[in-house]
Structure formats: structure tokens, C-alpha cells
């Protein structure tokens, strides 16, 4: 009997929600701060959280271990801008060691790329092999307008350094009505000529007071139709497992992904969990529901109360997101994308 219960304890109990989906992928937003202010993401004057409310990097690691013990195999570090967080490489070092021990399959990063040149080699040394870099335009002036003050040369330098260090880079671009529709061909060429996949993201109504999303929103179903008049888009037989649907662009040989949360539902296969910088667990990016883990984490060394909260939250994961944009109505979520980092 004792032997059986020991075995039961050793085998991780997977995090299965009420709709039969198993969570194996955790995204950690390690800071709400950022060196940019992308118009679709943040307002110009942001008030950031006081430091004491933010988990320290050891707490993030402990939390990650608790999730790993419940079957999480992939961790993505995001933000805000994760690379502005002081000593962030020490978290990569701790998680990289877990990767080496076989406790994780993959450790990745989403970044705006402005500080990537400084960290590319260390990221590779800590086991990171793929990074997502956000870049919505190749035009320096438009980049500055979108990010409010960013310098595009920093991103180009970051991409170059990442590739030189051996990291595989994917470009993420938020599709917007207007200039983006004209520039997207150039972005495709830029990414594919450099061996990078490009993923287009539909703008999501997260956060208030940015701009009128009905004016900027560009449906990727429409954009895809437009692109298919100029490019040969060959649907891939196998899906990546994530929310993006990929095609191969025959003319370049590169992959082009579409993330369409508004015009096409991707919730049915969602395997993701997200933790904010304050230690709140969100089981769905498109809902307001959250479960705070920080107090339980700080109450002592016992991981079991934290694990119990995680189990309860996952059991209540909603079936799908709650936002939508139509011509005359925006149903959004109050928190900005920078709380969870995508
Ligand atoms: N700062 C990093 C970056 O920009 O990659 C990581 C965090 S950022 C919030 C993650 C991704 O979310 C970026 O690719 C960004 O373009 C995207 N994003 C931000 N606000 C968005 C919105 N309202 N709709 C769709 N994507 C958004
Ligand atoms: Fe910062 Fe990323 Fe948001 Fe832009 S999208 S403001 S880079 S967190």
C-alpha cells in the first residue's frame, strides 16, 4: 500500500481542465515595465507596479518548479519587456539548469528586441534556442510612431546578434489597418530572406484608452485573402500545436503564421497558463478571471497550498475568450497585454 501511494506521488498529476485540455505550457510575465510604449499595448503615461508587489526571480523559479511538477514542459519568459528586468539572466540560468536536468523541454523568450544584442549569447548558453521578436514595420519613422520612441536599429542589432549566437528567431507583427497592409510584403521578404518565420497577430482589445480599435483592427482572414492574390500560400498539413495557423509562402520557402483570436477560435486546443509579474495565475488571456498565488508562495516553504490553488484555477479554466470587435462594438478586457505578455 505504502509503495503504491509513493508511486502515485512520484507520477505528476497533469493539469487537466474541465474541458479535457491539459496545460503543459507556462508563460511568465516577469515585469510590467517596458522601454517602449506600443500604441496598441500601453498608454504613454503608465504607472508601473511597486517593486514589492512583483515576484522576485527566485519566487518565479520556485513557482516554475511547482508547475513543472504538475506536467508543464515548456516555459516562455515575457513581459512587459523581460530584458529590462534587472538580473533576468539569473532566472534563465535557473530554468536552463532545469532544462539540462530534463525537467523542461523548452525555454523561450518573447522580446521587443531592443536589448537582445546584449543578452543573445547568455540566452543561448542557458539553453534558449528560439526567441520571438516583435517588429511591426521596417520603416524607422513608423516604428517610432508605433512604439512612441523606439529606435529600429536596436531591433535589427538584436536580431543579428541572436542569429549570430545560434538562436532561431521568429518575427511577430501586429496587423493594423492602413500602412501595415502595404508593408506586409516587405516584412515577409525581410523575415524569410533571413531564415525567420513571420507570425501576424490580430489586434486584441486588451487595455483601455489606447486608441479606437475599430479603426485599427484588421481581420487576418481579410489580409490572408489579400496576400493570396500576391503570394502562393500553401497550407501546412501539420499544425504547430499553438494558436498560429501556418502556411508556406512558395516564392520564399518561409513560413507565415496567422494568429486570429477574433476571427477564428483557437481556444479548443489551448494548453497555456499565464502568470503575471505579481504572481496572478490567468488560465485564459481573454477573460478577467485570475487566482493570486503570491500570498500562498510567501506564506512559507510549503508548496502544497500553491499547488492546490493552481489545481483549482485550472479546473475552472473557461472554455474560450470573452472579447470581440465588430463594426460598432468593442468587447474588451481592462488589463493591457503587457500584464501577461501575449
Ligand atoms: N515586450 C515584449 C514584446 O513586445 O515582444 C513582450 C511582451 S508583448 C505584450 C508580447 C506581444 O504582444 C508582442 O508581440 C506585442 O506586439 C503583442 N501585443 C501587445 N498588445 C497587443 C494587442 N492589443 N493585440 C495583439 N497583440 C498585442
Ligand atoms: Fe512594450 Fe511589448 Fe507592449 Fe510594446 S508590445 S509596449 S514592447 S510590452
Automatic annotation (TrEMBL):
EC number from the UniProt entry: 4.1.99.22
Residue sites binding [4Fe-4S] cluster 2 per the record: 267, 270, 284
SUPFAM superfamilies the record matches: Radical SAM enzymes
Binding locations of S-adenosyl-L-methionine: 40, 80, 134, 204
Cofactor note text: Binds 2 [4Fe-4S] clusters. Binds 1 [4Fe-4S] cluster coordinated with 3 cysteines and an exchangeable S-adenosyl-L-methionine and 1 [4Fe-4S] cluster coordinated with 3 cysteines and the GTP-derived substrate.
InterPro entries reported in the protein's UniProt record: Aldolase_TIM, Elp3/MiaA/NifB-like_rSAM, MoaA, MoaA-like, MoaA_NifB_PqqE_Fe-S-bd_CS, MoaA_twitch, MoCo_biosynth_MoaA/MoaC, rSAM
Amino acids binding [4Fe-4S] cluster 1: 34, 38, 41
Protein keywords: 4Fe-4S, GTP-binding, Iron, Iron-sulfur, Lyase, Metal-binding, Molybdenum cofactor biosynthesis, Nucleotide-binding, S-adenosyl-L-methionine
Record has Iron-sulfur as a keyword: yes
Subunit-structure text: Monomer and homodimer.
Full protein name: GTP 3',8-cyclase
Record lineage: Bacteria, Pseudomonadati, Pseudomonadota, Alphaproteobacteria, Hyphomicrobiales
Amino acid at each position: 500500500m505504502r509503495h503504491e501511494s509513493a508511486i502515485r506521488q512520484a507520477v505528476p498529476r497533469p493539469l487537466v481542465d474541465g474541458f479535457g485540455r491539459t496545460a503543459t505550457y507556462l508563460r511568465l510575465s516577469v515585469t510590467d515595465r517596458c522601454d517602449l510604449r506600443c500604441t496598441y499595448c500601453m498608454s504613454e503615461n503608465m504607472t508601473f507596479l511597486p517593486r514589492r508587489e512583483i515576484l522576485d526571480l527566485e519566487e518565479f523559479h520556485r513557482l516554475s518548479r511547482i508547475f513543472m511538477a504538475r506536467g508543464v514542459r515548456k516555459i516562455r519568459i515575457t513581459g512587459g519587456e523581460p530584458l529590462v528586468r534587472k538580473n533576468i539572466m539569473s532566472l534563465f540560468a535557473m530554468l536552463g539548469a532545469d532544462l539540462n536536468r530534463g525537467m523542461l523541454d523548452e525555454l523561450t523568450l518573447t522580446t521587443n528586441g531592443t536589448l537582445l544584442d546584449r543578452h543573445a549569447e547568455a540566452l543561448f548558453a542557458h539553453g534558449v534556442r528560439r526567441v520571438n521578436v516583435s517588429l511591426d514595420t521596417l520603416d524607422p519613422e513608423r516604428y517610432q510612431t508605433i512604439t512612441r520612441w523606439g529606435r529600429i536599429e536596436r531591433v535589427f542589432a538584436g536580431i543579428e546578434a541572436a542569429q549570430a549566437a545560434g538562436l532561431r528567431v521568429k518575427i511577430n507583427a501586429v496587423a493594423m489597418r492602413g500602412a501595415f497592409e502595404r508593408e506586409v510584403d516587405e516584412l515577409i521578404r525581410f523575415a524569410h530572406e533571413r531564415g525567420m518565420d513571420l507570425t501576424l497577430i490580430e489586434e486584441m482589445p486588451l487595455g483601455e484608452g489606447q486608441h479606437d480599435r475599430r479603426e485599427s483592427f484588421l481581420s487576418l482572414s481579410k489580409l490572408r485573402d489579400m496576400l493570396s492574390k500576391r503570394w502562393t500560400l500553401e497550407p501546412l498539413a501539420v499544425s504547430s500545436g499553438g494558436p498560429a495557423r501556418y502556411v508556406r509562402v512558395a516564392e520564399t520557402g518561409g513560413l507565415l503564421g496567422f494568429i486570429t483570436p477574433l476571427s477564428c477560435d483557437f481556444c479548443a486546443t489551448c494548453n497555456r497558463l499565464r502568470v503575471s509579474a505579481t504572481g496572478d495565475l490567468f488560465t485564459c488571456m481573454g477573460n478577467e478571471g485570475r487566482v493570486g498565488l503570491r500570498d500562498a508562495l510567501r506564506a512559507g516553504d510549503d508548496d502544497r497550498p500553491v499547488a492546490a490553488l493552481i489545481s483549482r484555477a485550472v479546473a475552472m479554466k473557461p472554455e474560450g475568450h470573452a472579447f470581440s470587435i465588430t463594426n460598432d462594438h468593442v468587447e474588451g478586457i481592462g488589463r493591457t497585454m503587457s500584464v501577461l505578455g501575449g
